[in-house]
Amino acid sequence: MFSIGITFIVSITIFLLTLDAPIDNSFAQQNILESMQSIPVQAQSASGLPIKLSIPKINIVASIIQVGLTKDSTMGVPKTPTDTAWYDQGPRPGDIGSAVIDGHYGWGNGISAVFDNLSDLKPGDVIYVEDDKSQTKTFIVTNSRDFDPLADASTVFTSTDNKAHLNLITCEGIWNKTKKSYSKRLVVFADLKP
Protein backbone atom coordinates (compact mmCIF):
# COMPACT_ATOMS: atom_id res chain seq x y z
CA MET A 1 0.00 0.00 0.00
CA PHE A 2 1.23 3.47 -0.77
CA SER A 3 0.04 6.77 0.56
CA ILE A 4 -0.09 9.93 -1.43
CA GLY A 5 0.35 13.36 0.09
CA ILE A 6 -0.37 16.66 -1.55
CA THR A 7 2.03 19.47 -0.95
CA PHE A 8 1.49 22.94 -2.18
CA ILE A 9 4.23 25.49 -2.22
CA VAL A 10 3.72 29.16 -2.87
CA SER A 11 6.81 31.06 -3.98
CA ILE A 12 6.72 31.71 -7.68
CA THR A 13 4.19 29.21 -6.68
CA ILE A 14 5.06 25.57 -7.16
CA PHE A 15 2.82 22.59 -6.67
CA LEU A 16 4.42 19.29 -5.76
CA LEU A 17 2.98 15.94 -4.84
CA THR A 18 4.94 13.61 -2.61
CA LEU A 19 4.73 10.09 -1.33
CA ASP A 20 6.53 9.04 1.77
CA ALA A 21 9.78 9.22 -0.22
CA PRO A 22 11.53 12.61 -0.40
CA ILE A 23 11.26 14.69 -3.55
CA ASP A 24 13.66 17.44 -4.54
CA ASN A 25 11.76 20.68 -4.05
CA SER A 26 14.80 22.97 -3.90
CA PHE A 27 13.53 25.27 -6.67
CA ALA A 28 13.05 28.69 -5.05
CA GLN A 29 13.24 27.01 -1.61
CA GLN A 30 14.59 30.19 -0.03
CA ASN A 31 11.38 32.07 -0.93
CA ILE A 32 8.83 29.44 0.02
CA LEU A 33 8.50 30.17 3.73
CA GLU A 34 8.41 33.94 3.15
CA SER A 35 5.68 33.58 0.54
CA MET A 36 3.52 31.31 2.68
CA GLN A 37 3.89 33.65 5.65
CA SER A 38 2.85 36.64 3.53
CA ILE A 39 -0.69 35.26 3.34
CA PRO A 40 -2.73 37.49 5.65
CA VAL A 41 -3.98 35.82 8.81
CA GLN A 42 -6.95 37.37 10.57
CA ALA A 43 -6.08 38.18 14.19
CA GLN A 44 -9.73 38.35 15.26
CA SER A 45 -12.10 36.08 13.35
CA ALA A 46 -15.86 35.90 13.60
CA SER A 47 -15.64 32.40 12.15
CA GLY A 48 -14.88 29.39 14.28
CA LEU A 49 -12.30 26.76 13.44
CA PRO A 50 -13.47 24.61 10.52
CA ILE A 51 -14.23 21.01 11.52
CA LYS A 52 -16.43 19.48 8.80
CA LEU A 53 -16.61 19.72 5.01
CA SER A 54 -19.79 18.63 3.20
CA ILE A 55 -20.28 18.50 -0.57
CA PRO A 56 -23.64 16.87 -1.34
CA LYS A 57 -23.13 16.54 -5.10
CA ILE A 58 -20.19 14.16 -4.66
CA ASN A 59 -21.29 12.61 -1.35
CA ILE A 60 -18.52 14.08 0.79
CA VAL A 61 -18.82 14.48 4.54
CA ALA A 62 -15.29 14.76 5.89
CA SER A 63 -13.47 15.96 8.96
CA ILE A 64 -11.21 18.97 8.58
CA ILE A 65 -7.90 18.96 10.41
CA GLN A 66 -5.63 21.98 10.80
CA VAL A 67 -2.25 22.05 9.12
CA GLY A 68 0.50 24.60 8.81
CA LEU A 69 3.86 24.32 7.13
CA THR A 70 5.94 21.17 7.20
CA LYS A 71 9.66 21.22 7.99
CA ASP A 72 10.38 21.59 4.27
CA SER A 73 8.08 24.66 4.09
CA THR A 74 5.21 23.00 2.25
CA MET A 75 1.54 22.93 3.21
CA GLY A 76 0.68 19.99 5.43
CA VAL A 77 -1.75 17.29 4.34
CA PRO A 78 -4.17 14.95 6.10
CA LYS A 79 -2.73 11.68 7.38
CA THR A 80 -5.72 9.61 6.25
CA PRO A 81 -7.39 9.33 2.83
CA THR A 82 -10.79 10.37 4.22
CA ASP A 83 -9.91 13.62 6.04
CA THR A 84 -9.27 17.06 4.59
CA ALA A 85 -6.81 19.70 5.80
CA TRP A 86 -7.27 23.44 6.23
CA TYR A 87 -4.19 25.66 5.93
CA ASP A 88 -4.37 27.44 9.29
CA GLN A 89 -1.88 30.18 8.39
CA GLY A 90 -4.47 31.64 6.00
CA PRO A 91 -8.03 32.84 6.50
CA ARG A 92 -10.70 30.66 8.08
CA PRO A 93 -13.47 29.62 5.70
CA GLY A 94 -15.95 32.51 5.70
CA ASP A 95 -13.38 35.21 6.49
CA ILE A 96 -12.10 37.67 3.90
CA GLY A 97 -9.43 36.13 1.68
CA SER A 98 -8.78 32.68 0.23
CA ALA A 99 -9.20 29.82 2.68
CA VAL A 100 -7.49 26.67 1.39
CA ILE A 101 -8.44 23.05 2.08
CA ASP A 102 -6.60 20.11 0.55
CA GLY A 103 -7.41 16.43 0.37
CA HIS A 104 -6.11 13.23 -1.14
CA TYR A 105 -6.80 11.71 -4.56
CA GLY A 106 -5.86 8.28 -5.85
CA TRP A 107 -4.90 6.65 -2.56
CA GLY A 108 -4.33 3.20 -4.08
CA ASN A 109 -5.13 -0.46 -3.33
CA GLY A 110 -8.81 0.17 -3.98
CA ILE A 111 -9.10 2.61 -1.07
CA SER A 112 -11.24 5.66 -1.83
CA ALA A 113 -9.81 9.10 -1.13
CA VAL A 114 -11.90 12.10 -0.12
CA PHE A 115 -11.30 14.13 -3.29
CA ASP A 116 -11.39 11.31 -5.86
CA ASN A 117 -14.46 12.93 -7.48
CA LEU A 118 -13.63 16.59 -6.93
CA SER A 119 -13.42 17.12 -10.70
CA ASP A 120 -17.19 16.44 -10.93
CA LEU A 121 -17.97 19.80 -9.30
CA LYS A 122 -19.32 22.48 -11.62
CA PRO A 123 -20.19 26.18 -11.22
CA GLY A 124 -23.24 26.55 -9.00
CA ASP A 125 -22.55 23.45 -6.90
CA VAL A 126 -22.70 23.93 -3.12
CA ILE A 127 -20.00 23.34 -0.48
CA TYR A 128 -20.65 23.57 3.26
CA VAL A 129 -18.08 24.16 5.99
CA GLU A 130 -19.15 23.69 9.62
CA ASP A 131 -17.08 25.27 12.38
CA ASP A 132 -16.57 24.51 16.05
CA LYS A 133 -19.19 27.14 16.95
CA SER A 134 -21.84 25.03 15.15
CA GLN A 135 -22.07 27.63 12.38
CA THR A 136 -22.23 26.47 8.76
CA LYS A 137 -20.87 28.59 5.92
CA THR A 138 -22.19 27.98 2.40
CA PHE A 139 -19.92 28.36 -0.61
CA ILE A 140 -20.87 28.28 -4.29
CA VAL A 141 -18.45 26.81 -6.82
CA THR A 142 -17.43 29.42 -9.41
CA ASN A 143 -14.94 27.44 -11.49
CA SER A 144 -12.19 24.87 -11.44
CA ARG A 145 -8.77 24.84 -12.99
CA ASP A 146 -6.00 22.37 -13.67
CA PHE A 147 -2.48 23.48 -12.83
CA ASP A 148 0.81 22.10 -14.02
CA PRO A 149 2.90 21.09 -10.99
CA LEU A 150 5.32 23.96 -11.67
CA ALA A 151 2.72 26.59 -12.56
CA ASP A 152 2.28 29.92 -10.81
CA ALA A 153 -0.72 29.32 -8.59
CA SER A 154 -0.68 32.43 -6.43
CA THR A 155 -4.43 32.88 -7.04
CA VAL A 156 -5.05 29.75 -4.97
CA PHE A 157 -3.69 31.22 -1.72
CA THR A 158 -4.30 34.94 -2.15
CA SER A 159 -7.05 37.32 -3.22
CA THR A 160 -7.39 41.08 -3.27
CA ASP A 161 -11.12 41.58 -3.83
CA ASN A 162 -12.15 41.80 -0.15
CA LYS A 163 -14.41 38.75 -0.48
CA ALA A 164 -14.41 35.34 1.21
CA HIS A 165 -13.29 32.42 -0.94
CA LEU A 166 -12.79 28.70 -0.39
CA ASN A 167 -10.32 26.84 -2.62
CA LEU A 168 -10.20 23.04 -2.60
CA ILE A 169 -7.00 21.39 -3.84
CA THR A 170 -6.13 17.88 -4.93
CA CYS A 171 -4.19 16.01 -7.59
CA GLU A 172 -5.34 14.34 -10.77
CA GLY A 173 -4.02 13.08 -14.05
CA ILE A 174 -1.49 10.34 -14.65
CA TRP A 175 0.65 8.83 -11.88
CA ASN A 176 4.38 8.98 -12.59
CA LYS A 177 6.16 6.26 -10.60
CA THR A 178 9.58 7.79 -11.18
CA LYS A 179 8.63 11.29 -10.00
CA LYS A 180 6.16 9.93 -7.43
CA SER A 181 3.71 12.55 -8.57
CA TYR A 182 0.51 13.04 -10.51
CA SER A 183 0.66 15.07 -13.71
CA LYS A 184 -1.83 17.76 -12.67
CA ARG A 185 -3.19 19.67 -9.70
CA LEU A 186 -6.91 20.47 -9.57
CA VAL A 187 -8.25 23.52 -7.76
CA VAL A 188 -11.96 24.14 -7.26
CA PHE A 189 -12.70 27.79 -6.54
CA ALA A 190 -15.79 28.79 -4.54
CA ASP A 191 -17.20 32.01 -3.08
CA LEU A 192 -19.08 32.54 0.16
CA LYS A 193 -22.83 32.70 -0.48
CA PRO A 194 -24.13 36.16 0.45
Please characterize this protein's 3D structure.
The longest helix is centred in the first third of the chain and has 9 residues, at 29-37. This protein has helices spanning 29-37, 154-157; strands at residues 5-9, 14-18, 50-55, 60-67, 84-87, 97-103, 126-131, 136-147, 164-176, 181-192. The chain has 2 helices and 10 strands, in the order E-E-H-E-E-E-E-E-E-H-E-E. The protein has a single domain (5-192), classed as Sortase, Chain: A. 7% of the residues lie in helices and 40% in strands. The termini are far apart. By secondary structure, it is mainly beta. Strands 3-4-5-6-9-10-8-7 form an 8-stranded mixed barrel. The chain has a two-stranded antiparallel sheet with strand order 1-2.
Topology diagram in text:
Blueprint: E1 5-9, E2 14-18, H1 29-37, E3 50-55, E4 60-67, E5 84-87, E6 97-103, E7 126-131, E8 136-147, H2 154-157, E9 164-176, E10 181-192
Parallel strand pairs: 4-5, 6-9
Antiparallel strand pairs: 1-2, 3-4, 3-7, 5-6, 7-8, 8-10, 9-10
What is this structure, in a nutshell?
The chain is mainly β and 194 residues long. It has helices at 29-37, 154-157, and strands at 5-9, 14-18, 50-55, 60-67, 84-87, 97-103, 126-131, 136-147, 164-176, 181-192.
